[in-house]
C-alpha cells in the first residue's frame, strides 16, 4: 500500500507511477492468451476440452461442455428459497433500470423532403462471460444477461469456469431466471475464443460481454474486430473519497470489498484528513485478520492499495478523475456537489449509506464496468451493448434534384466516376421525363 500526500515533493512522480501501474495490467498475458486463442481456432472443441482440463482441472468432452436442463433444474432445487427471493429482488431491480434505458428510434423529414432516421436492432447472438475462478458470481449472470434479454437478443450463450467441476447452484439458477439459452462449463481465454470463433459445440456469437480476470480481459481485446466486445472489465477497482466524518472501519470495508475480488484489484482512499487516513489504514489491517478472503484482499491491498492525502475535496475529485476508477464512492456531506465535478468513473455511489456493494447486487445499474482507467472512454454494460443502429434515408425525385448535384461534384472531386454517374444518371432521367410532354 502506498500512502502519499499531495504536499510531498515527490508526489507527482509517485502518482504517475500509480496511474501507469493501473494501465499496465495484462501486458504479460498477451502471449499466453494469443497462444490459447490460436489453438481454439485451430482445434476447436478438442483444444477447449484440453485447456479446461489444464486450467480448471476439469475432465470434459464435447458432449459434457454444456449444462443440461436436468442439471439446471437440480441446481435451482438446491438453492434456499430466501436466496431465490434475493435473486428475484436483484433481477427485478436490474430489469427495471435496463428497461428504462431502451432508446427510441429516430425519424424526421428534412427541408428537402427526405425522411431520415435510425432504427435500433438487437444483436442475434451474444456470448456472456461469467467469472468463476476465485469466486462464483451469480450477480454477474444477472448483470450480463438481463440487459441482453431486455434489448431483445435472440440467443444468449454463457460461459462460466467450474474449477474442478464445482459450480455454485445459484449461478445456474440465476442464468435460468435471466433467460440464458445455453450454458457452458468453460472459462478463461479459451471460453472467449470458443464464443468468438465457434467450435463444433459452441456456435460463434456476434458480441462477447462480461467481466473476468486478466486472461479474459486480454482475450476479449484480442478477439475484438472478429466479434464485438463491451468495455474491458478486468480486475475490480475502487476509489473512495471520504471525509473524517465517515467511520474508518466502514471505509476500510468498502476498500476491502473490492480488494477481496482479486490480488490485482485496486483500492484507493482519498481524504483531506491525514489522521482519518491512518485510522482507515489501521482498520484495514484489523479487518485483514478476520476476513475470510484475507489472503486475496491482503495481497491486493499491499501491492496496489493506495491512500492519498489531499488539501481539500476539490483536489480529491481532480485526482479521482485522473484515476478514472471503475467505482467511485463519495462519502461526504454533499456528494451531489462533488459528483458535479466527476468526469471519469464507471459508476458513482453518492452518500454515506450508498456503498458500492449495494450496486454490486441490488441497486439496478450494471456492475460490469470499465476497469484499469478505461472509464476515460468507456461505460458500463447496458442495453446499448446489445443493440446496434441502422440508419435510413428515404427520398423521392424532388430531394434528389436538390441535393444530388452536390454529391456529384464531391464524387468527381474524389475521382469516383461510378458514384457520380449513379446519381447523375437518375438526374438525367428526371430531366428527360420533365422535358417529355405528359401523355393524356
Ligand atoms: N468489473 C466487473 O464487473 C467484475 C465483476 C465480477 C468480477 N470481476 C473481476 O473478475 C475477475 C474474476 O477473476 P477469476 O480469476 O475469479 O475468474 P475468471 O473466470 O475471470 O478466470 C478464471 C479463468 O482464468 C484462466 N486462468 C487462470 N490462470 C491462468 C493461467 N495461468 N493461464 C491461462 N489462463 C488462466 C482459467 O481458464 C480460468 O478458467 C476478478 O478480477 C474480479 O475482480 C469484475
Ligand atoms: N464489484 C464487482 C465489479 O467490479 C462486481 C461484483 C460481483 N459480485 C460482487 N461484486
Ligand atoms: Zn464487488
Automatic annotation (TrEMBL):
Ranges annotated as spanning the membrane: none
Native source species: Acetobacter garciniae
Taxon lineage: Bacteria, Pseudomonadati, Pseudomonadota, Alphaproteobacteria, Acetobacterales
Cofactor notes: Binds 1 zinc ion per subunit.
Catalytic activity: L-histidinol + 2 NAD(+) + H2O = L-histidine + 2 NADH + 3 H(+)
Protein residues bound to NAD(+): 129, 190, 213
GO molecular function annotations of the record: histidinol dehydrogenase activity; NAD binding; zinc ion binding
InterPro entries listed in its UniProt record: Ald_DH/histidinol_DH, Histidinol_DH_CS, Histidinol_DH_monofunct, Hstdl_DH
Record's protein name: Histidinol dehydrogenase
Amino acid at each position: 500500500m502506498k500512502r502519499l500526500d499531495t504536499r510531498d515533493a515527490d508526489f507527482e512522480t509517485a502518482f504517475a507511477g500509480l496511474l501507469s501501474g493501473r494501465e499496465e495490467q495484462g501486458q504479460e498475458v498477451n502471449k499466453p492468451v494469443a497462444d490459447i486463442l490460436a489453438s481454439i481456432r485451430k482445434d476447436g472443441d478438442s483444444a477447449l476440452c484440453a485447456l479446461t482440463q489444464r486450467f480448471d482441472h476439469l475432465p470434459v468432452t464435447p458432449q459434457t461442455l454444456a449444462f443440461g436442463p436436468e442439471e439446471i433444474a437440480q441446481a435451482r432445487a438446491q438453492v434456499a428459497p430466501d436466496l431465490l427471493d434475493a435473486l428475484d429482488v436483484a433481477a427485478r431491480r436490474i430489469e427495471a433500470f435496463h428497461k428504462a434505458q431502451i432508446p427510441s428510434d429516430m425519424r424526421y423529414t428534412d427541408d428537402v423532403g427526405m425522411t431520415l432516421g435510425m432504427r435500433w436492432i438487437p444483436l442475434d447472438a451474444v456470448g456472456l462471460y461469467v467469472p468463476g475462478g476465485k469466486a462464483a458470481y451469480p450477480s454477474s449472470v444477472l448483470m450480463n444477461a438481463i440487459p441482453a434479454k431486455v434489448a431483445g437478443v435472440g440467443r444468449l450463450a454463457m460461459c462460466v469456469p467450474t474449477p474442478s467441476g464445482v459450480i455454485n447452484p445459484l449461478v445456474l439458477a440465476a442464468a435460468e431466471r435471466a433467460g440464458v439459452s445455453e450454458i457452458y462449463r468453460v472459462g478463461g481465454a479459451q471460453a472467449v475464443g470458443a464464443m468468438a470463433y465457434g467450435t463444433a459445440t459452441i456456435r460463434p456469437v456476434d458480441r462477447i460481454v462480461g467481466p473476468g480476470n486478466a486472461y479474459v480481459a486480454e482475450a476479449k481485446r484480442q478477439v475484438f474486430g472478429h466479434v464485438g466486445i463491451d468495455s474491458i472489465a478486468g480486475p475490480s477497482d475502487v476509489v473512495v473519497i471520504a471525509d473524517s466524518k465517515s467511520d474508518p472501519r466502514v471505509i476500510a470495508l468498502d476498500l476491502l470489498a473490492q480488494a477481496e475480488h482479486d490480488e490485482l484489484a485496486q483500492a484507493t482512499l482519498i481524504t483531506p484528513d491525514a489522521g482519518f487516513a491512518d485510522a482507515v489504514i489501521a482498520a484495514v489491517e484489523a479487518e485483514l485478520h478476520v476476513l475470510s478472503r484475507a489472503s486475496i484482499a491482503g495481497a491486493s491491498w499491499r501491492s496496489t492499495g493506495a491512500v492519498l492525502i489531499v488539501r481539500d475535496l476539490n483536489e480529491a475529485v481532480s485526482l479521482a478523475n485522473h484515476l478514472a476508477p471503475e467505482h467511485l464512492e463519495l462519502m461526504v456531506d454533499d456528494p451531489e456537489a462533488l459528483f458535479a465535478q466527476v468526469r471519469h468513473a464507471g459508476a458513482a455511489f453518492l452518500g454515506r449509506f450508498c456503498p458500492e456493494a449495494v450496486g454490486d447486487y441490488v441497486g439496478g445499474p450494471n456492475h460490469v464496468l470499465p476497469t484499469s482507467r478505461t472509464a476515460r472512454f468507456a461505460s458500463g454494460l447496458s442495453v446499448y451493448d446489445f443493440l446496434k443502429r441502422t440508419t435510413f434515408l428515404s427520398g423521392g425525385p424532388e430531394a434528389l434534384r436538390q441535393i444530388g448535384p452536390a454529391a456529384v461534384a464531391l464524387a468527381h472531386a474524389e475521382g469516383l466516376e461510378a458514384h457520380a454517374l449513379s446519381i447523375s444518371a437518375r438526374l438525367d432521367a428526371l430531366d428527360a421525363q420533365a422535358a417529355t410532354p405528359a401523355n393524356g
